[in-house]
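SAMPLE LOG
Freezer: B-3
Tube label: C17
Construct: single chain, 674 aa
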Amino acid sequence: MGLPALEFSDCCLDSPQFRERLKSHEAELDKTNKFIKELIKDGKSLVAALKNLSSAKRKFADSLNEFKFRCIGDAETDDEICIAKSLQEFATVLRNLEDERMRMIENAGEVLITPLEKFRKEQIGAAKDAKKKYDKETEKYCGVLEKHLNLSSKKKESQLQEADSQVDLVRQHFYEVSLEYVFKVQEVQERKMFEFVEPLLAFLQGLFTFYHHGYELAKDFSDFKTELTISIQNTRNRFEGTRSEVESLMRKMKENPEEHRNISPFTMEGYLYVQEKRHFGTSWVKHYCTYQRESKRITMVPFDQKSGGKGGEDEAVTLKSCIRRKTDSIEKRFCFDVEAVDRPGVITMQALSEEDRKLWMEAMDGREPVRRDTAQLDNIGFSIIRKCINAVETRGINEQGLYRIVGVNSRVQKLLSILMDPKTASETETDICAEWEIKTITSALKTYLRMLPGPLMMYQFQRSFIKAAKLENQESRISEIHNLVHRLPEKNRQMLQMLMNHLANVANNHKQNLMTVANLGVVFGPTLLRPQEETVAAIMDIKFQNIVVEILIENHEKIFNTVPETLPPNSQLLLLSHKKNTDSKPPSCSERPLTLFHTAQANENQETRNSIINSSLESVISSNVNSFLHSNSTLRPSLNSSDPDLEVIKPSRPNSSEKIPTRLCGTLTNPSQV
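STRUCTURE (predicted):
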């Protein structure tokens, strides 16, 4: 149902019915105003969306235009040429279409948004201003009328006539404003029928023009579309024909890959893992390596197959030597060491399999490492230890962390290979040259001791030494260890004496090298007194192994240069009490060494595990003991030993009054950190 007409004659009466009809017109104007406001907002959103769509399609067209087909082979068929240029044709069509869309978007602002905003501002806005004026005059007229009616009839006639004239003026002005407002309201209601709809029609016309342009483009594209469809079908048919042939060749490659392998310009090529030094340790980086025997050039390209990208710069070196890496010298399998003419140090590489390593070593004319079956306490063994000690005391006695800081494993193994070579070892006067770092020499010494068939202080005495270290009295500990040392075979004792004299010299320089007696005990305890079986109990006794080594270092002159006293029948080794009486006291602080240097060295512990060579011990021990007994025939056996399982040599009582050194208070370092 339509709106009621507003009669000008009703403006004078200003009846309730007139006010109701006026309110219905005002509500319609308010509704129209809100609708146009939302329409303008939606129109702007539509224009923005069309711009984004156009931008996305242009980007899509640019991507199509940039891509170039590269067909397999050195020539293309007509069908392949047609397919290759199809993307550029697609891009051209899309760009042309988007050019027309942009013209439509630019016109949308002029033909739709601007007219609607103008109508809302000029027409509906003017009607709102007229309403404000009408409401203001209504309030003024009513106020004056009420005031006039309240005048007293007793006032002078002239005053009453003046009041009547004023009311007539206000009534006339209110009537004029009312007429103007009714006129404006009805004008806006009529104007919206064309000024509101006409912009929408213009916008739709632009939209139809855009779609018609697309239709024309589709007609122009029809011929190329037909040609392209035929080319695609021809290409698909050829693919189906060649696919079976390619698949047949693939099956042949699977069955016999060597027969169909391409001839390579390189003697050997493939993936290898190369050991690299990092700030946090070592890492193994995958490289694609090539080797050419004529030039002896090795090229290493760091490459990650998972990511398909290079991991760094290429490197090329000239081969000097290639040596297979022994399994017990490194925790990785299939390794070999390469030395280069133009690069210092050793490059450790890991092949993908044992067969792959053989191929690489054959291509590089690789050699087997110079090695002996096991380390021995023979002339070569004494020569190796003597050379290492001499090198340390000559040029490295004050180096911080001596024996605690480990050397590079590959360098250590190479030094041992040189020292254990019978040709090199026979040159007793030749010292270790200065090119070898002190940490490499100290690691070589420790590694050689671990390579012995058994620990230097022997498996059969290990428990006895531990029991001696557990005695509560320090003097008893020294006495028992003194006695046990002289039960060792002569060569073991000689090697141990040479080592302890050296370690005492190292400890005397602890202010410079930071290696106290306690620190040296932590380093050498597990090496010299390792148990035959690795058990929880043996691990708990590591601290006592360290104490034994500390006692040997601090009392080396007395222990190795004097003969021990005869032990009483009830030796304290058998009187380890599980209860403490009131007179017994724990070891005093003065009986423990001061530890000045604590730094974790996990590599040392790993090196210990990897370097132990298991071999038979019984024949070596028995022969050494027998030789010792025969060489000391003036001494008679004693049955008063503290360890009934061991045969004891009873020496004469010395007149020794050596004072037991007092040690500073301190703590032991965990041997797994050394």
